[in-house]
Amino acid sequence: MEFVNDYDMVILYHESMVNIVADVLSRKSLHSVSTIALIMMLGSELEAMGFHMIRKGDKVSDLTLEPELYEQIREKQLMDSRIVKWRESVEKGESIKFSIQEDRSLRFGGRWCIPDDEDLKRLILTEAHCTPYSVHPGGDKLYMDLKKTFWWPGMKIEVATFVSRCLTCQKVKIEHGRPQGKIQSLDVTEWKWESTSLDFIVGLPKSKKGNNMLWVIVDRLRKSAHFIPMKDTWRKVEQHLL
Q1: 196 Cβ partners below 8 Å, 6+ apart?
Q2: Cβ-based neighbours of 97, under 8 Å, separated by 6 or more
Q3: CA distance 226 to 189
């Protein structure tokens, strides 16, 4: 405004139908050059996010994104025995939930059936959770986003496990659960051996009597302890029950 105040000028409004000269100037070759520069800048940002730019024909302004993920899914579907059985049931007309698309991929309710391949699942989860355009969504949000396109048995549990192991989420995000309340201190004991704690020390070498573990009993007041040698026969009973 300070720069404009130095001039004796009047600003007049022209409707779009009358403002022909300004429209012609906005469509000069310089405008197309700026568009090309903008496209090249967009291409560099896409390459930084892991995408690859492919030119189509002689037009620089056409961008074609061809993700390699779907091709990997189609190839690994042919090697998964479980998906092969589902495909055979579809071809026999025995399954209604599954369907075979034109690209020969198996879908479950229109969603991609992901083979039982840990690397492929980790790639999908990492792409949807850790990339710059996903901003680390929570477990429920990530599951709701992925279930629109992908499906595999136990998907929700694996998504929750993956998010819980994300180091970035552990550092930044906080839990919004109900507060646990104030810490309740233990009562102070007034007499020895009134309150005790018990523990077991296992995995010790066998003694002459065959004892290979200790039963530790500690008095909370005087911090005195008794070490009682024992045999780990309870372990054999537990293994027998299992």
Answers
A1: 217, 218, 219, 220
A2: 108, 109
A3: 19
Least confident of 16-25, 138-147, 148-157: 16-25
- DSSP label at residue 13: -
Q: Which of 95, 63, 66, 72 is nearest to 82 (CA)?
A: 95
Spell out the residues 6+ positions from residue 83 whose beta carbon is closer than 8 angstroms to its own: 77, 106, 113, 115
Structure tokens at 11: 């600003």
**For residues 53 and 67, what is the distance between their CA atoms, to the nearest angstrom?**
11
d(Cα 116, Cα 133) in Å, to the nearest integer? 26
Backbone φ and ψ for 217, nearest 5 degrees, come out as -120, 120
User: What single letter denotes the amino acid at residue 31?
Assistant: H
Question: Is the pLDDT at 221 greater than 70, yes or no?
Answer: yes
pLDDT value for 214: 92
Torsion angles phi and psi, residue 159, rounded to 5? -65, -45
Residue spans of the domains in the chain: they are 20-64, 69-172, 196-241
Please calculate the CA angle 36-37-42 and round it to the nearest 5 degrees.
95
pLDDT in tens, 81-103: 999 999 999 988 888 889 998 88
Residues 162, 125 contacting (CB under 8 angstroms): yes
Assign domain 69-172 one CATH number from 1.10.340.70, 1.10.3660.10, 1.10.472.10, 3.10.20.30.
Answer: 1.10.340.70
Q: Kindly report the number of other CB atoms within 10 A of residue 86's CB atom.
A: 19
Contacts of 50-57 with C-beta under 8 Å, sequence gap 24+, read 50/127, 50/131
